Amino acid sequence: MKKCLIAVALLAAPLPAMADKLEDLQKQGYVRIAIGNEPPYTAVASDGKVSGAAPDVARAVFEKLGIKDLEASIAEYGAMIPSLQAGRVDAITAGLFMKPERCNAVAYSQPILCDAEALLVPKGNPKGFKSYADIANDASARMGAPGGGTEEKLALDAGVPRDRLVVVPDPQSGLKMVQDGRIDAYSLPVLSLNDLLAKSGDANLEVFAPVEGAPVYCDGAAFNKKDTALRDAFDVELAKLKESGEFAQIVEPYGFSAAAAMSTTRDALCAAQ
Ligand code: 6CS
Fold first, then answer.
1. How buried is residue 105: exposed, middle or buried, by Cβ count under 10 Å (0-12/13-18/19+)?
2. What are the backbone dihedrals phi and psi of residue 165, each rounded to the nearest 5 degrees, phi first?
3. From ligand 1's centre to the CA of 67, what distance in Å?
4. Are residues 211 and 119 in contact, defined by beta-carbon separation less than 8 angstroms?
5. What is the pLDDT of residue 273?
6. Which of 18, 84, 97, 214 gives 20 to 30 Å between its CA and that of 129?
7. To test the ligand 1 pocket, which listed residue (150, 153, 154, 187) has its Cβ within 8 A of the most ligand atoms?
8. How many Å lie between the centroid of ligand 1 and the Cα of residue 137?
C-alpha cells in the first residue's frame, strides 16, 4: 500500500518548469543580440557603443524586464536566424523584417520598425530602375544586396539571375561598389540608404524609393521558438512603451514612424507577402 501512495504522490508533484529564459537572462544581467550594423536600424560606434532604433527599443524593453545590458554581435542577415536557433544569441534586434518563412523559424515580437525598399543609383538613375523587375530585364545590370536579406530575395523572385546579384557585406561596401561602377544599384531599406547617402555627401548618387512592387515591411525582435514566454514578456513591456509614447520618442528621431508599427500586427505581417 505504502509503495502505491508514494507513486501517487510523485505523479501529483508538479514537474520542474522548463528552464525560464527570462530568469536566466535576469541572472545573466545582459541579453546577447544579433545586429547588422546598418544605421539607423543598428549601429556600433568605434568605442563599441551599440545604438540604432532596434537596439534602443530592445534596451528600453529589457530594462523594464530587469535586464540592464545588451551584448551585440554583428552578423549577416542570412546568418541571424541560424545563430539564434543555435543559441549563440538570445534575440535578434536588427530590423529583420517579418516574412512568412521567417515567422515560421522564430518567435517574433509585435512590430517595431517599418520601412519600404530603395535603390542607391548614380545621379539621374541613368538605367531608369524603378523595380527589381527593371533590373532583371536589363541583362547588363548588376545589383548589390545583403546576403540572405529581403532585397536579395525580392530581386531573385523578380528574375534577377544569381550571377548578376552581388552579396554586399555592409553599407559602406555597397556605397563604394556603386561609386566604382561595380554594381549598377545597391538595395537596402529607404532609411538605410538615405542615411548612407547623407553621410557620404556624394552628389553623384541618388536614392530611388520606394521600389515599385516591393511591400512595406516591419521588423520585430526575434526570439528562439522555444522562448515564447520571453517573447510574450517582451511584448507586454513593448505595448506599454507604445501606449506611453516612449516608443515614439525612441524610434521617430531615427526617422521611423511609430504609427506605422502600431497600425499593424505580427499576425498580419506573418500572413502577408
Ligand atoms: O530584414 C532584412 O532582410 C533587411 N532588413 C534590413 C534592416 N536591412 C537589409 C535586410 O535585407
1. middle
2. -110, 125
3. 26
4. yes
5. 60
6. 97
7. 150
8. 24
Our answer on whether the CB atom of 195 is closer than 6 Å to any ligand 1 atom is no
> Which of 3.40.50.11740, 3.20.20.70, 3.40.190.10, 3.40.50.2000 is the CATH number of 117-208?
3.40.190.10
Ligand 1 centroid–CA 216 distance in Å is 12
Burial of residue 156 (CB within 10 Å: 0-12, 13-18, 19+) is middle
Q: How far is the CA of 96 from the centre of ligand 1 (A)?
A: 5
Nearest CA to ligand 1 atom 6: 95
pLDDT at 184 over 60: yes
Q: Do 234 and 240 touch, CB atoms closer than 8 A?
A: no
Q: Would the CB of 146 count as within 6 Å of ligand 1?
A: yes
For ligand 1, is residue 90 a contact (CB within 6 Å)?
Answer: no
Same fold, 5-114+217-271 and 117-208: yes
174 CB less than 6 Å from ligand 1? no
- Could you tell me what percent of the chain has a pLDDT over 90? 91
Domains in the chain: boundaries: 5-114+217-271, 117-208
Q: Per residue in 54-105, pLDDT tens?
A: 999 999 999 999 999 999 999 999 999 999 999 999 999 999 999 999 999 9
CA 259 to chain centroid: 18
Please give the DSSP secondary-structure letter assigned to residue 214.
P
5-114+217-271 homologous superfamily: Periplasmic binding protein-like II (3.40.190.10)
